[in-house]
Amino acid sequence: MSTEPKRSETVSTFTNFLRREKDDSSNAGKFGMFGGVFSPTLLTILGVIMYLRLGWVVGNAGLIGAIAIIVIANSITLCTALSMASITTNIKIGAGGAYSIISKSLGLETGGSVGIPFYVSQTLSAALYIIGFTEGWKYIFPEHPALVVGLITWAILMTISYVSTEFAIKIQYVIMAIIVFSLISFGMTPNEPVTVREMVGDFQDGGFWYVFAVFFPAVTGIMAGANMSGDLKDPRRAIPVGTLAAIAVTSVVYVVLAWGLWAYIPKEELISNQMAMVDNSAFGTAIIAGILAATFSSALGSMLGSPRILQALAEQKTVPFPAFFAQRTEKNEPRNAIIFTGIIIVLALIPGDLDFLATLITMFFMITYGMLNLVVFIQQSMKIISFRPTFKIPRFVSFFGACGCIFMMFLINPAFSIFAIVIIIGLYVWLTRKELQADWGDVRGGMFLIMAERASRIAAKFPRHFVSWKPDLLLPVDDPKVWSGPLLFIRSLTHPSGSVFAFSVEDEKRGAVQQQLDKLLDPLRDGAITVNSTVVEDVNFTHGAKLVIQTLKGATFRPNTLFLTLSRDSKNDQTIEDMVVQAAADEMGVLILHQHERVAFGMQKDVNLWLREKSPNWHLAVLMALQLQLNWNGRLNLIASAETEEDKVRIHDFLERLSDTARLPSLTNFEVVVGDFNDTIEAAPKADVNIFGLGEKPSFEFMRNVVKKTNSSCLFVKDSGHESALV
């Protein structure tokens, strides 16, 4: 039965939809593009690296090298921002920014496995920025204890973020003014232009990519605005416009500032003095104020965004204690998440040295950016009608962004990259086991379906070959309510790579029969077998079954073997005979099982495979025997009959050669019984199932008698001509 939601259950009326959109966009206490996205993104990018490390980059790389590093770094973040702009104009994202986008596209498990490390990274980033603020403060007041300065700074930031996000946004405007003034101060430098200037540096402290790795974290603040998505009036517009505008402005600032450093400060000083901007500006105090303001604003931005990511994770139960962390105040503040985040920051401040975590933080940022690009690339490649963003980007943009992020991760630190990926995979496995349920759909099912469709088109170009054969059974079920077929035996015939397509025929109440059929097949699904089922509407079972066989012949993924069960009475014998004829006409193999009413399959260990020396009908029988031996881990007996003692040696040799050619298990036993075939059956070794060949027409009398003679269940097999036990 289909599990897809009905249209009436998922889509409200047009009037209600518009009303909901209007209500969502007019919530009090939410922010616009400038305050909610542009300002925090701008201030996070114009951070401490701009003041303390850009000069070192210019000194090592020269002007052209520095500009190349800035352009390459910004090209990756620009691709990510464009991907984010595209997808935010296609879906209504909720709180959590990147987490919300990834979850709504690739499911809660993927979103959570990326979102949890992303939250930790954002949180520890605040600790890093506070430590940076402390270093700037100690430049002015070297006698002040670093830990005390850090804790006081943390307390001020906590108070601001706890009291009101609106107040924190207003504080950022003041910080922005300080940073602008500090840049103007450097532009008014009293220095004369440097006479000897190198366009391309000699990279004396490290190669190009080493210098690039030092600079790259400067441009990783593009999610600062997206993290506030739950507090924006119109995130669909604010996030793309605000983020792209911030990237454009900061790119210009970095390029112009790199030119100023190159033009007015000697290379030796740029490399050796991290405070070169302070010592070479019109007002050095303004640069110090800018450093303090930049680190303070970056810490504040992280402390505003991190709790909202945690709150979004908690709403979907992807973190422990979800009810506690998901709570919000009347003013839409995630107070519990803020307090918890603040505690983590304090614990991270106490050691004072976060070099290990700083690299790991960068890895998680890069994974998040890469996943966001990948989400867009996948949906662009799928060409599904639901992906129709109003902001369209070329597919190579998202592809370049995803590949660039992975490349930069391993460029910066391969060991940390592998460590971060292992953590992501571990979280994904853990969240998968939680069986999370989202309120929205995602593209995973469609993604794999499209992959299967494209693979099927490729597979259709190649003829089916014996080497790729696997047991794909077609299973007719006359009445799911009373069907007592051997599901465990069917699993043994198909596991691990086979499949089952079951069907029933009903002239009315198809829905109820489908439910019964699905319930019947649940044990196979639980046993990791691919199972599909349907109910065909027809007044005659045989006619409906023939239609199924004929229809499936044209399918790319179609069953190759018809599985039937023989009952003790003869009422269904004609139906079985008709279906065997139809299967042969449509080139399907046939399995007919007659199950012993008392012993069933015994200990599910030993298999007797009966072979005739000159019979062409034995390939499928051998393959089925191998499947049972594999899953039962028992013994396989190859048995044949000889008319005379003289024939016994020759037939025994035939069985040995067959075993060697077919690569049967080394412990396979060979048994040749002398006499008429029907008279020697009882002389064969005891087994849990006996496998026999099936002639052109089933001999039902023989099939029923042989079960009594062997005192076991028997499987009768007929080749289709598309199997080979010798490949």
What does this structure look like?
- The chain has 727 residues and is an alpha/beta fold.
- Helices cover 59% and strands 8% of the residues.
- Strands 3-2-1-4-5-10-9-6-7-8 form a 10-stranded mixed sheet, sandwiched between helices.
- Helix 28 (700-710) links the parallel strand 9 and strand 10.
- The longest helix has 35 residues, at 54-88.
Identify the CATH architecture of the largest domain: Up-down Bundle
User: Roughly what is the average pLDDT, rounded to an integer?
Assistant: 83
Q: Structural class per helix/strand content?
A: alpha/beta
State the shape.
Answer: elongated
The CATH superfamily label of the largest domain reads Amino acid/polyamine transporter I
Taking pLDDT < 50 over at least 5 consecutive residues as the criterion, the unreliable ranges are 1-15, 20-26
Q: What fraction strand?
A: 5-15%
**DSSP strand count:** 10
Main CATH class of the largest domain: Mainly Alpha
Cα-to-Cα separation, first versus last residue = 38 Å
Determine the CATH topology of the largest domain. Amino acid/polyamine transporter I
* Main sheet record: 10 strands, mixed
Number of helical segments? 28
Strand order of the largest sheet: 3-2-1-4-5-10-9-6-7-8
What brief labels describe this structure?
59% helix; single chain; Rossmann fold; 10 strands; 727 residues; Amino acid/polyamine transporter I; alpha/beta
Strands, helices and their partners?
Layout: H1 7-10, H2 14-25, H3 33-45, H4 48-52, H5 54-88, H6 98-106, H7 108-140, H8 146-163, H9 165-187, H10 208-215, H11 235-264, H12 267-272, H13 276-279, H14 284-315, H15 322-325, H16 335-349, H17 355-382, H18 395-412, H19 414-433, H20 444-460, E1 472-476, H21 487-494, E2 499-506, H22 510-526, E3 530-537, H23 541-552, E4 561-565, H24 573-585, E5 589-594, E6 607-610, H25 619-632, E7 636-642, H26 645-661, E8 669-674, H27 677-680, E9 689-693, H28 700-710, E10 713-718
Parallel strand pairs: 1-2, 1-4, 2-3, 4-5, 6-7, 6-9, 7-8, 9-10
Antiparallel strand pairs: 5-10
Helix pairs in contact: 3-9, 3-11, 3-14, 5-10, 5-11, 5-17, 5-18, 6-7, 6-17, 7-8, 7-14, 7-16, 7-17, 7-19, 8-14, 8-16, 9-14, 14-16, 17-18, 17-19, 18-19, 23-24
